[in-house]
Design a protein that fits this description.
Helix 2 packs across helix 3, helix 13 packs across helix 15 and helix 18 (722-736) packs antiparallel against helix 19. The model has no long low-confidence stretch (mean pLDDT 98). The longest helix has 34 residues, at 379-412. Strand 25 and strand 26 form a beta hairpin. Among the domains are: 4-194, tricorn interacting facor f3 domain (Immunoglobulin-like); 310-442, Neutral Protease Domain 2 (Neutral Protease, domain 2), CATH 1.10.390; 450-534, Aminopeptidase N, middle-beta domain (Immunoglobulin-like), CATH 2.60.40. The protein has 867 residues and is of the alpha+beta class. The chain binds (3S)-3,7-diaminoheptanoic acid and zinc ion (ZN). InterPro entries: Aminopeptidase_N-like_N (IPR045357), Aminopeptidase_N-like_N_sf (IPR042097), PepN_Ig-like_sf (IPR038438), Peptidase_M1 (IPR001930), Peptidase_M1_dom (IPR014782), Peptidase_M1_pepN (IPR012779), Peptidase_M1_pepN_C (IPR024601), Peptidase_M1_pepN_C_sf (IPR037144). It holds the Pfam family DUF3458. Residues 544-867 form the Peptidase M1 alanyl aminopeptidase C-terminal domain.
Amino acid sequence: HASVLLKDYTPPDFLVDRVTLVFDIRPEETRVTSTLTLFKNPDKSNKSSVLKMDMGDFEIQSVTLDGQNLSSNAFQADGKQFIVPDMPDRFTLETRTLLCPEKNTRLEGLYRSRGIYCTQCEAEGFRNITPFPDRPDVMARYTCTIIADKTACPVLLSNGNPVKAGDLPDNRHFVTWEDPFKKPCYLFALVAGNLSWIESPFVTRSGKHITLKIFAEPENIDKCHHAMACLKQAVKWDEERFNLEYDLDLYQIVAINDFNAGAMENKGLNIFNAKYVLADPATATDDDFMNIQRVIGHEYFHNWTGNRVTLKNWFQLSLKEGLTVFRDQEFTSDLNSRSVERISNVKTLRALQFPEDSGPMAHPVRPDAYIKMDNFYTMTVYEKGAELIRMIHQFLGETLFQQGMALYFKQFDGMAVTVEDFLSVMAQAGHMDMTQFKRWYTQSGTPTVTVTRSYDPDTRILSVTFAQHTPFDRNQSEKQPLHIPIRMGLIDPEGKDIIPEQKSLIQMRDDTHTVAFQNVPSGTLPSVFRQFSAPVKISTDLSDEELAFLMARDTDDFNRWDAAQTLFNKEIQTLVSAIARHRPLTVSQNLVQAFETALSDQSADRAFLAKALAIPQEMELANLFDCIDVDAIHAARQHLKTHLAATLTPLFLNTIDQCGHSDPESLSIQDIGNRGLRNLAISYMASLGTASVHDIVWKAFLAAENMTDEFACFKILCTTTPELKRKSAARFYDKWSHDPLVMDKWFYVQAVSPLADTLPCVKDLVTHPDFTLTNPNRVRALIYGFAMNNPVHFHEKTGNGYEFITDKILELDTINHQIAARLTGCFNHWKKYDSHRRVLMKQSLEILAASPNLSTNVYEIVSRALA
Ligand code: B3K
Ligand code: ZN
């Protein structure tokens, strides 16, 4: 299992000019003919004449070089590499290969999902289709002909534009597609199957008429309208905000049931996990609708950031992913509520990226080594990567940032580039030295910034000191100070913001940094890292009373939310230590009051309240502790929730009532906010555990008029009693067993139940006729849901949870390496548990490590965890 190192990068020996592919699709036997025109890389000084290409595990039937047949001893092909010695400067190579997409359960390369043939080539899947220099810095023009049975596969799609189509003997037909843009092979795609579609015309800003199409299985086509609306929003938004117009005549999206990732931005032919396309109010929650908008936007925005300008090598992944996540975040923020979007993104970053940054998978946003690239599609590359772009955006401001983007496309359109190239245009546009900022890309770990204050009542000077520290890790033994943007304000005792906007951005470059504010009234509070201006852990010296004040009065929404989070976190920490010392559990009056004030505020934005008043999830709370006690965290959270529900019962009941009058099918911010707050209030009430509140939830479940409410109530019912869990699960199943995406919810909710019998129940569900290990969404719902979102049961003291998951990883690894490796991540933080669990989790990792035939994907995760 060799590591690939950034420092070993060398340009390719051979480049490809044209790629002509012919796919002859037949059941159990797909023949691929690939014709490549290759030439020696003119930019390379010591040119090699040996052609080395990547190849997967398939049969090569014939090879011709400039029309001459090559005998099998004129080339080497070992299922990894394809080598032909002594090549001329320019030549045409034709290879014929035999594939069996029906047997491809790894879902990379060409595979078949519920009757539909499709491809997934990023990162290194194209080599499973034909021998090729499978690296993103080899860009070529593609022509693709697909031949298949007319009845089984009436629809035949590839990148670009259809240029030729016709009938063939034996009920077969063909379509030829041509993509006018050069692209790396990871953006190649093909789809063939029995699909329906909806289409919509769109006139771009310059007056060009384009067609947008979304394909799905015939029974799902009615659920594609939301996705189409989102696609139009995305095309328009990219024109308006980034001045970027679509470049082909046709944009196609296909929804597929079995898909390893969320979606894939193949040029002109996006392939999507059905979960991010199909929706209607009866089957999709508000979160699902929002996720569809986000992912549709994300893949569309890749057309420029990723496709037109692509990556020199896979180490640069964040160049396209961080930037495109930033773009999709801005898209959803411009279209919905900016502060609610920001809160959701920061929650994800803290819950998932911060732990990644402090565990065995810690890597810089631009990693410098990998064994299997698939393992580096991480929170760090995506979400932290987006935060780095956001920091640049703050330093430059929107206007200069957009000038930098314009320069990026001017200089690098059609090229495969690096993070340095991006930073250079931003430095140029912003007249800014980015040398220190670049450390964010090369240094791993989350810095902690400690904020301290001192106030002199005589001079009325408030000094605020920031100190940064990043703990050392496996990547760097010593960390350099980072260039950190700190957006801040000062809130005076009346709740007024007293520093002018132009003074609000502080640039921290050293280990410590002090700012002094003149003429500040006594009792003024600093509000730091507004809108979460940098991806750091913030430690302040604010008291509970001061936090409660900021929670009520800060003019920055994000910091109002964050003050509430900090209050919750402090309360949980106090409760957990009381549990550890067997002390009675109390809840501070200060928190209850702050909560009450917020919930009674009639003028407040309900979507915001639904976020601010939710106690952080157990996973997020775990990050507060050096040694994680899952049971104590669970008990503390439960206690806090029940205490709030008991103390504020009338207020919760009132909220349930007041928020109950939204239009069940409307996706307006107000209606989404109403549902969110109402379901939060129901969940607080349910924590009381009385028959009468159970009755409220059950009735709300029966009365639900959309999936948001039905799912929320079902989830709550599965936390109440075994009887209600059984009853609600049976009803939900009867109603939805025909719909795979809703069935994923059914599996998930049972997997995350805190009730005592959850593990046996999950084991039973694995044998349910609707469960299968071959569908990634189903695995993520049940197995991954249990391992990652049910800490109490996954970490059961018996070790049964670990044992169950270890077995599943081994079983999955024979089917789908990428999904098995993702699941293995549930053991990453084994060192953060008590000694008993530490031993058991380590044993699981050792069992995996010792297993013969372990995939490279799982090996990399296991070996990092054990290192
Ligand atoms: N670029 C794809 C990710 C492909 C995952 C490969 N293992 C989706 C996206 O980020 O847009
Ligand atoms: Zn992406």
